[in-house]
Amino acid sequence: MLLSPRAERNWEELCLVLEEVLEDESTRQLFALELGSGTGQHVIRFAQKMPFVTWQPSDIKEESLESIMEYIAATQVKNVLQPVHLDASAAWEEWAAVSRNSCDVVIAINLLQYSSFKTAQGVFTGSGQLLRHNGLLITYAVYAINGTITPSCNERLDAELREMDPEWGLPDVDVLRQLAYANGLRMERMIEMEEYYKCLIFRKL
Fold first, then answer.
1. Which pLDDT score, from 0 to 100, does residue 24 have?
2. In Å, what is the CA distance from 160 to each residue of 1, 100, 111, 169?
3. What's the order of all strands across the beta sheet hosting 131-141?
4. Which of 81, 115, 188, 203 lies in the 20 to 30 Å Cα band around 1?
5. What does the buried/exposed string (b/e) look like for 22-48 if buried means 16 or more CB atoms within 10 Å of the residue's CB?
6. DSSP letters spanning 85-118
7. Per-residue pLDDT tens for 103-140?
């Protein structure tokens, strides 16, 4: 199993946000797709805390898919499906194990800053197709706002990401808001998190 120290630090804070935004829906069974699940630590913790949600983890990397399967086996959690290979930059019709209007929640944690703009476009296009009416897209990252990155530590993070891959970098909230609008979503909330991270909550109209 892979282990991410960051995931161990932030899962509880993220879980509190999810529990809050899904509280009104907790009386029925929900279906959630996680994009870029990574090690699998987040989805396992979320599943343990929110048994009313069935979770579909996904990733593009084989080592991540194997780690998720190992976490599922080790914890014996019942409401996490086996992970699927999913490239969020691909057309939504190619996304495995999900169909149009099948999801109550789509979540992407630390995906957008470590991927190309094409991936961001894919996340919002796919979410616009897969989410049911009033479904939620939740993204967690460090963001630029209207082209501005603050404070200086976030400027350094953006530069480091672009050194690793010129197509990476901090996503801009206003650009994401426009992508959302173009795909039938509306940004409802921006929740401040620790270490300059933010959760953006988008709702399917």
1. 84
2. 27, 37, 16, 8
3. 84-85, 53-59, 30-35, 103-109, 131-141, 198-204, 185-192
4. 115
5. beebeeeebbbbbbbbbbbbbbbbbbe
6. E--TTS-GGG-TT--TT-EEEEEEES-GGGS-HH
7. 999 999 999 999 999 999 999 999 999 999 999 999 99
